[in-house]
Write a structure and sequence with these properties.
There is one protein chain. With about 525 residues, this protein is mainly α. The chain folds into 2 domains: about 10-205, Fumarase C, Chain B, domain 1, CATH 1.10.275; about 210-505, Fumarase C, Chain A, domain 2. It has 18 helices and 9 strands. It has helices at about 20-25, 35-55, 85-90, 100-115, 125-135, 155-165, 180-185, 195-200, 205-235, 245-250, 255-270, 285, 290-310, 335-365, 390-405, 430-465, 470-485, 495-505; strands at about 10, 30-35, 95-100, 140, 145, 170, 175-180, 320, 325-330. Strands 4-6-7 form a 3-stranded antiparallel β-sheet. Strands 1-2 form a two-stranded parallel sheet. Strands 3-5 form a two-stranded antiparallel sheet. The longest helix has about 35 residues, at about 430-465. The chain starts with 8 loop residues before the first strand and ends in a 9-residue tail after the last helix. The mean pLDDT is about 95.
Amino acid sequence: MMSVNRDPVRFDGTPLTIEDVVALAQQSRCAELSADTAFRARIARGADFLDRLLAEEGVIYGVTTGYGDSCTVTIPPELIPELPHHLYTYHGCGAGRFLSAEETRAVLAARLASLAQGMSGVSVGLLAQLETLLRHDILPRIPAEGSVGASGDLTPLSYVAAVLCGERDVLYRGAVRPTAEVYAELGIAPLRLRPKEGLAIMNGTAVMTALACLAWRRADYLCRLATRLTSVNVLASAGNAHHFDEALFAVKPHAGQQLVASRIRADLASERPSRNEQRLQDRYSLRCAPHVIGVLQDALPFFRQLIENELNSANDNPIIDGDNEQVLHGGHFYGGHIAFAMDGLKNAVANVADLLDRQLALLVDTRFNHGLPSNLSAATGERAAINHGLKALQISVSAWTAEALKQTMPASVFSRSTECHNQDKVSMGTIAARDCLRVLELSEQVAAAMLIAARQGIALRQRIDAGLALTPALSKLQAALQAQIPLIVEDRALDRELITLVEAIRAEQWELYAD
């Protein structure tokens, strides 16, 4: 279950974690822009340096020039103040679903974290306006589609820029309303962007990074849940607990794989010997579960490093070094690390969903479940003939798994040359992040179905073996599931229970392993 920390997440240029972003997204913590005078002076130095350059007629990309391929176009001095507003205006061409409230809060947090590094040439007022959106939960309506993940998340972040300036629509207190109307109601002054501020907001990786933070957290919990479900499925199918022996895993020392095996070993610990020592080897979906889940477990720390490095970076262009008075033109808006992390994470997660799907296929099949009734139906007597247990649920799990596996095609290999070949190699990081969230959504549905199967399978195994011992961890899970899910004796629709279980998974309802 998620721990609650009511201390604010402070934005002062020091590193944030994935958990900080998730806490802001879920409103378990609030945002606070640092009032430290040294921090604010550092932010101001970048904006002041830009002002001096403009007064001296310096040439600055995106400030005194057009954008992208239009960098050779010189902007007349009297039109420079209008340029940032044109940037977010013409990028108002997003499509697809709107980001959820949780996703949008994460985007605001990710952009504020980057700008708080003090290398973007923005004013303290811009940072304060972003903090205001988070504090009042004024959420820009951000279309999910339209970013190629280089030159930043330009189109989706244009909706953040427009809202900061009092334009377009927001979600506020459950209703979609014009930003100007909400600002007037709350006494918030619309921002007038200074030179470079439109570019600083939009020319970065905030959307893909925000989605990556949310995806990582969900994948971490799913990894733990899949491990516990495997433990239950080994018991329900009268499997061989010796497949997870410590000495066995010592000779293949992948740390995550060893951790998964040790968790399963602890879940299955019992004073009683294995009841199936005559069957030397279970099928791969049980025997090799640590090898499958272990890939995800081993990948999570690496992906955390990539995501948090991106989160705590200045990732727009140009970089404005106010301390050393330099304008550094580069490509930090390129989201390749997030693209790689999300392409890899969705692959590892989908493989875990496939593992659970195969475990369910064994549990419902009397040829492989070692004495359990067909389709895990609890109906007995003559009524057993008309009851079908989890037959349809297994079909749905197969469908969700197949769709998750289909989504694993890496987005990052589909780079396109765009914008007059200025953006001729792009990351597709935002598409990869959205794909990863979809794979997680489908995989969580698979896990929800497996919770129903776990509740059913253990109860039916205990009919056969009344002395079956459960460790405290498995007993606690089974008791919770029994309280939530009535035993399926007579056929019933399971959709509402599935929805409730998916919500419980996303809320991290069950405490899973203290290591």
